[in-house]
């Protein structure tokens, strides 16, 4: 079991339940909201739950860690279906589930049609004929039939109606007995899901809690008529947690990033303002506690110090700042630099410095590490730049100003 998180961090969770094909192979996972690592079922299926599943999956764990190369099914509420909340990922490897609680009206049909036109696949969850969801059958790729709690008296008619739409696959869910599994076989349902096959698994990770004020400030900056990219970069670079989320999002297969990142600016440019805006909106909905001022200042001091000494080793200052920040966040999460670097889309020079201490940036990190542990002899032997004490004071002043700016943002 994971330990309780240290101050300024949190445990984040996401549930996943396998979906099997007729041969018993796992072909997909349904992603589920879980409020704790020992939660058996979700205690909510609202917009907050959907937002937290999306944020945790794509920016905390990484979609590859959660589902690998398989498809993931994500429950959507009305706000996402009609476009009030935008989806910050592409249609690859994702199926959008229309919850049975969504009232199907013209606005929802229009929104779902737009999503299908963009390439997203749609699944109708807990499908019941006569609920209005049959209007979405022409748009659906999957229909989920609950064989545990659903009304099976009209199963023949429902299956016939689904089969009338070419391309729809039926998922039998709620399978808890051998009899229900046999019923799935008798009707030839392509996919199956339920406790008789596999119970949901809760994945848990330790995460740095982003600053609520920084999220709101970022959202305000992104919502301006003329978005100031430099202000956006300043806000993100000044908050270690936001930096980590932007980096992870840039490496998400759903966003389609293909090149390695060497600066916050590159990550932001790669994702684009629209994607950053979507993530910021979801973080506000997610709305968890902010990191402590002391932790924020320490992380920023280390990053700024790496930036300041970079020129002595002919290292790129932006890359040195990022390496220093990643190392600080790794320490806050109780992870090694190598473990943190392995999760992020880093350029070879930054990855090599963090994982093996190689290159000019590796030299920067060694000097900063030596200074932080009080090994002044090693510092003197390796560093021939300007007075380091003055450089450290500059980094401390800068980080205090950055944190104060955060606290006074609203």
UniProtKB/TrEMBL annotation:
Against Pfam families, the record matches this protein to: EAL (PF00563), HDOD (PF08668)
Q: What sections of the protein cross the membrane?
A: none
Q: Report domain EAL positions.
A: 1-214
Designated name of the protein: EAL and modified HD-GYP domain-containing signal transduction protein
Question: PANTHER family, per this entry?
Answer: CYCLIC DI-GMP PHOSPHODIESTERASE CDGJ, PTHR33525
Native organism is Actinoplanes digitatis
List each copy of the HDOD domain by range.
Answer: 208-402
């Amino acid at each position: 079991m994971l330990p309780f998180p240290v101050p300024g961090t949190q445990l984040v969770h996401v549930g996943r339940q396998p979906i099997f094909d007729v041969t018993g192979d796992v072909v997909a996972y349904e992603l589920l909201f879980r409020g704790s690592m020992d939660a058996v079922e979700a205690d909510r299926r609202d917009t907050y739950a959907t937002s937290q599943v999306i944020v945790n999956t794509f920016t905390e764990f990484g979609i590859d860690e959660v589902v690998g190369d398989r498809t993931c099914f994500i429950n959507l509420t009305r706000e996402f279906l009609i476009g009030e909340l935008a989806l910050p990922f592409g249609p690859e490897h994702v199926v959008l589930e229309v919850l049975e609680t969504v009232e199907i009206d013209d606005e929802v049909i229009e929104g779902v049609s737009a999503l299908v036109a963009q390439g997203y696949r749609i699944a109708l969850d807990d499908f019941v004929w006569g609920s209005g969801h049959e209007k979405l059958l022409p748009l659906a790729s999957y229909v989920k039939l609950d064989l545990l709690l659903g009304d099976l008296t009209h199963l023949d008619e429902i299956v016939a109606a689904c089969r009338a739409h070419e391309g729809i696959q039926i998922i039998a869910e709620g399978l808890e007995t051998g009899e229900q599994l046999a019923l799935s076989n008798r009707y030839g349902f392509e996919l199956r899901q339920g406790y008789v096959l596999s119970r949901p698994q809760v994945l848990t990770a330790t995460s740095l809690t982003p600053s609520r004020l920084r999220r709101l400030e970022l959202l305000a900056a992104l919502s301006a008529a003329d978005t100031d990219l430099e202000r956006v970069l300043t806000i993100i670079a000044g908050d270690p947690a936001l930096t980590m989320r932007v980096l992870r999002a840039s490496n998400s297969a759903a966003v389609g990033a293909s090149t390695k990142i060497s600066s916050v600016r590159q990550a932001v440019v790669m994702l684009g303002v629209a994607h950053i805006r979507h993530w910021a909106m979801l973080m506000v909905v997610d709305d968890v506690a902010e990191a402590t001022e002391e932790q924020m200042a320490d992380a920023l001091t280390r990053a700024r110090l790496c930036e300041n000494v970079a020129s002595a080793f002919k290292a790129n200052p932006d890359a040195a700042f990022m390496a220093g920040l990643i190392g600080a966040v790794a320490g806050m999460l109780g992870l090694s630099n190598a473990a943190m670097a392995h999760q992020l889309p880093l350029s070879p020079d930054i990855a090599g410095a963090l994982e093996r201490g190689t290159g000019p940036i590796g030299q920067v990190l060694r000097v900063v590490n030596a200074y932080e542990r009080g090994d002044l002899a090693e510092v003197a032997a390796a560093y021939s730049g300007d007075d380091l004490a003055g450089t450290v004071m500059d980094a401390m002043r800068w980080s205090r100003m950055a944190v104060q700016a955060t606290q006074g943002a609203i």
